[in-house]
């Protein structure tokens, strides 16, 4: 079993090697999406002893593509799994070769991503978005055999990277994370000598529009790269103005042509990283590419000379090849009335769970059917925010924290009720007045298109990775599952959930039809007293345990207290860990301010950064 790294040497000796990845996006054709989605997650009766045990990962999807014919542009079917009674081919047959790339390439272009089993759901999402766009010239590199087998039985084109990596999430910035970056550089060096154009993608991005026609508009470009630019440099779909791009070139989305300058840069990049394992792959690329910037190659294309003065580089526009900031915070594409091509989950604060949650908020992540019909049902509420908190006065620390704290108190009550009723809480949309970053700033980035207030991602305030973590019950009480704010609007929500609904209207006890009773005032509507206790909730709502969705008209004064004080103490321990920090004030070190879920129980609480090292800790 030869590792794929040998391909770098084999390329020099004209021996074969390669891989291709490909992804998909959600389109408005519900029927098409339904069939492919069902294929991804439908049960399988595979008898292979080497298939993955997790049923929704190992099930063979349906196919809608025609099989390829030699010499044609029709590619081999994606989502068509091998026969269930067949055996897993030997690992050697998944080696990256030039022939493999050639089988998947179309118009001389191959689209590639790679990862380990921990990112299986990201990879399936990436592939489905591409196939929904009728793009299938893709390959996925598997860094562990568990992922390779799972993708093979799904009918996804896959090759073995020979990395033998752990199947768990390695975490951003870890040594293993940096090792993955080096694998990317080796992969680029392996593929380019075979003469194919390579669109290399990270797994934490999705395609929203077929990018290949856009990339083909710039045939003279050696490399087209995305960037971390957050201030717009153009207001249409032209390449970014390279003279105005001060942010890093982001290597999560970039397109390589097999030209001499591109191959030279790839080799120097590889040599740099292999010589010093402390260099981050993206920093290394930026250092080399920026050795020279300019002049422009012409007056119109937006391409410029970079690296050694011969490489022609273009920077993809920040408004439509979106970062996590230009998409989720600024909605730059929306303000400029443009159609986004790509979404990359950068600029977020919740690790892998935060990336997944953001894609779910945007309704572009594909989860198994059980995600949309959880045991115990769902709880949601209509948030209530006074206009004065949202719009009046200056946008500053005080007004931002007043707005967040007001919403946080309602969410705390909702989490308590969800815990008591053993339901999954659908988080409300969250409004912010100030942006969050890793460094000091005046509230929003100068020159950006951030509107105030803006609908902010959950990870701007809440520790999404902690909320989704299995915390010990003996210390933190029962787990409280959550869903993204857009969940109930997702077209993948099944009809049986949509049709099983109870509206709860809070009322003042003693007024008409307002009693702690399970008697509905009309079908589908329950009037329920404000400031009810744990026992009142359990008693009344036990009659509605089979209802899929319970939606409260408000959370203002919905919950009074726990009866079980031990449970309340554990719940409090959990809540204190659910919120993060805002960052960062100017002219103060440290500049971050801790959110406090129980701010209302601390008279005189005000948002301020820690004044001493002893104060620099979360409020627990």
Automatic annotation (TrEMBL):
<dbReference type="GO" id="GO:0052636">
    <property type="term" value="F:arabinosyltransferase activity"/>
</dbReference>
<keyword id="KW-0812">Transmembrane</keyword>
<keyword id="KW-1133">Transmembrane helix</keyword>
<feature type="region of interest" description="Disordered">
    <location>
        <begin position="62"/>
        <end position="83"/>
    </location>
</feature>
<feature type="domain" description="Nucleotide-diphospho-sugar transferase">
    <location>
        <begin position="135"/>
        <end position="359"/>
    </location>
</feature>
<dbReference type="GO" id="GO:0052325">
    <property type="term" value="P:cell wall pectin biosynthetic process"/>
</dbReference>
<protein>
    <recommendedName>
        <fullName>Nucleotide-diphospho-sugar transferase domain-containing protein</fullName>
    </recommendedName>
</protein>
<keyword id="KW-0472">Membrane</keyword>
<dbReference type="InterPro" id="IPR005069">
    <property type="entry name" value="Nucl-diP-sugar_transferase"/>
</dbReference>
<feature type="compositionally biased region" description="Polar residues">
    <location>
        <begin position="64"/>
        <end position="83"/>
    </location>
</feature>
<feature type="transmembrane region" description="Helical">
    <location>
        <begin position="21"/>
        <end position="41"/>
    </location>
</feature>
<dbReference type="InterPro" id="IPR053250">
    <property type="entry name" value="Glycosyltransferase_77"/>
</dbReference>
<dbReference type="Pfam" id="PF03407">
    <property type="entry name" value="Nucleotid_trans"/>
</dbReference>
<dbReference type="GO" id="GO:0005794">
    <property type="term" value="C:Golgi apparatus"/>
</dbReference>
């Amino acid at each position: 079993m030869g590792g794929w790294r040998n391909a770098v040497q084999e390329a020099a000796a004209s021996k074969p090697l390669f891989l291709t990845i490909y992804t998909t996006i959600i389109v408005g054709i519900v029927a098409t999406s339904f069939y492919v989605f069902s294929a991804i997650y439908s049960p399988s009766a595979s008898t292979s002893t080497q298939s993955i045990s997790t049923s929704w990962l190992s099930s063979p999807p349906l196919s809608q593509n025609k099989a390829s014919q030699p010499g044609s542009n029709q590619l081999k079917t994606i989502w068509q799994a091998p026969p269930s009674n067949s055996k897993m081919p030997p690992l050697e047959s998944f080696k990256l070769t030039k022939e493999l790339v050639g089988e998947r390439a179309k118009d001389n272009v191959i689209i590639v991503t790679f990862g380990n089993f921990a990112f299986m759901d990201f990879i399936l999402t990436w592939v489905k978005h591409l196939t929904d766009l009728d793009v299938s010239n893709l390959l996925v590199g598997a860094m562990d055999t568990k992922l390779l087998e799972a993708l093979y039985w799904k009918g996804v084109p896959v090759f073995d990277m020979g990395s033998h990596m752990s199947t768990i999430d390695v975490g951003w910035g870890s040594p293993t994370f940096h090792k993955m970056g080096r694998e990317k550089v080796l992969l680029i060096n392996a593929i380019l000598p075979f003469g194919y154009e390579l669109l290399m993608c990270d797994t934490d991005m999705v395609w929203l529009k077929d990018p290949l026609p856009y990339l083909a508009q710039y045939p003279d470009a050696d490399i087209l790269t995305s960037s971390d630019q957050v201030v717009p440099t153009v207001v249409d779909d032209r390449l970014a103005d390279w003279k105005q791009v001060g942010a890093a070139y982001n290597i999560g989305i970039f397109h390589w042509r097999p030209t001499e300058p591109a191959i030279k840069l790839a080799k120097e990049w590889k040599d740099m990283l292999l010589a010093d394992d402390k260099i981050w792959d993206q920093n290394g690329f930026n250092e080399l590419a920026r050795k020279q910037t300019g002049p422009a190659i012409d007056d119109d294309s937006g391409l410029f000379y970079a690296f050694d003065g011969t490489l022609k580089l273009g920077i993809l526009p920040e408004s439509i090849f979106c970062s996590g900031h230009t998409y989720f915070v600024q909605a730059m594409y929306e303000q400029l009335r443009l159609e986004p091509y790509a979404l990359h989950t950068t600029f977020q604060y919740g690790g892998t769970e935060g990336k997944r949650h953001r894609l779910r908020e945007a309704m572009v992540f594909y989860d198994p059917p059980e995600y949309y019909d959880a045991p115990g049902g769902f709880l949601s509420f209509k948030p209530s925010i006074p206009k004065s908190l949202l719009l009046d006065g200056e946008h500053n620390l005080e007004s931002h924290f007043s707005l967040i704290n007001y919403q946080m108190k309602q969410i705390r009550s909702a989490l308590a009720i969800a815990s008591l009723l053993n339901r999954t809480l659908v988080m409300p949309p969250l409004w912010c007045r100030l942006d969050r970053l890793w460094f000091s700033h005046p509230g929003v980035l100068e020159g950006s298109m951030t509107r105030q207030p803006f609908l902010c991602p959950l990870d701007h305030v809440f520790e999404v990775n902690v909320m989704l973590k299995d915390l010990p019950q003996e210390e933190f009480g029962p787990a409280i599952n959550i869903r993204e704010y857009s969940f109930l609007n997702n077209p993948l929500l099944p009809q049986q959930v949509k049709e099983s609904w109870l509206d709860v209207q809070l009322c003042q006890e003693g007024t008409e039809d307002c009693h702690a009773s399970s008697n509905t005032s009309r079908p589908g509507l329950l009037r329920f007293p404000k400031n009810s206790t744990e026992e009142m909730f359990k008693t009344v709502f036990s009659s509605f345990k089979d209802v899929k969705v319970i939606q409260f008209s408000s959370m203002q004064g919905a919950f009074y207290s726990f009866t079980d004080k031990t449970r309340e103490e554990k719940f409090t321990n959990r809540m204190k860990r659910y919120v993060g920090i805002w960052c960062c004030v100017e002219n103060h070190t440290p500049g971050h301010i801790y959110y406090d879920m129980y701010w209302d129980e601390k008279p005189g609480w005000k948002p301020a950064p820690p004044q001493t090292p002893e104060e620099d800790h979360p409020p627990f």
